[in-house]
Write a structure and sequence with these properties.
208 residues; Arc Repressor Mutant, subunit A; four-stranded antiparallel beta sheet; two-stranded parallel sheet; globular
């Protein structure tokens, strides 16, 4: 994977950081970007540009930097629209080059087949992706592990993958509360009495 440009935005589920290569979205993180010696410190709603020293060589390196920053701007804008209720599908390329073969088998199927307001069980997604039970672990558990290591949550919507008897797990944000908030926000679950459009745990914390 080529060097990444990072951008940040605020959201009802907390701060979100997005990293893009020239190919597309490569990382989405809850919280700030990781510290990187070749990047400027993250600033809210600003793209963190790549260092000019990050990629040696003339011509093409600058074009890749420019394209990565363009992709970050697009991704941050579309995520802002999503959380503002103005977007239900992302029109963004994903850079799968940093993912494992198992992730590349399952995550694109999730991205293409489970839309806004929909959910799918771990087992059903495993069947859609053509995972075969090799006897080492149930395929639903394998899918759960892949969801837990999804590098691009929200854009690649692992929050829409649920257990057959409940929500299943979620490692982003505040965990299951963030997953539940996203599913209610999208209309996949009915709102609970304490659901707040301002974000999970707002009532308990007295606001953000």
């Amino acid at each position: 994977m080529s060097k990444l440009a990072w951008g940040t935005l605020g959201s009802p589920v907390g701060g979100i950081s997005v990293a893009c290569s020239a190919v597309g979205v490569a990382r989405v993180r809850f919280g700030p970007p990781p510290a990187r010696p070749d990047q400027e410190p993250a600033r809210s709603n600003r793209v963190v540009p790549l260092s000019k020293a990050a990629e040696p060589g003339p011509g093409g390196a600058q074009a890749r930097r420019d394209e990565a920053e363009h992709q970050v701007n697009r991704a941050c804008a579309q995520l802002t629209e999503y959380f503002g209720g103005q977007r239900r599908a992302f029109d963004l390329p994903v850079d799968w080059s940093g993912t494992s073969p198992a992730q590349r088998k399952v995550l694109p199927v999730l991205l293409s087949s489970v839309g806004y307001g929909e959910t799918v069980t771990y087992g059903t997604l495993a069947r859609r992706a053509g995972l075969a039970d090799d006897g080492t672990a149930p395929v639903a558990r394998v899918v759960g592990q892949i969801m837990g290591s999804n590098p691009c949550p929200i854009i690649v919507p692992c929050h829409r993958v649920v257990a057959s008897d409940g929500l299943g797990g979620f490692s982003g944000g505040t965990g299951l509360e963030t997953k539940r908030w996203l599913l209610i926000f999208e209309g996949a679950l009915p709102p609970t009495l304490d659901w707040d459009s301002a974000g999970p745990n707002v009532a308990e914390s007295g606001g953000r």
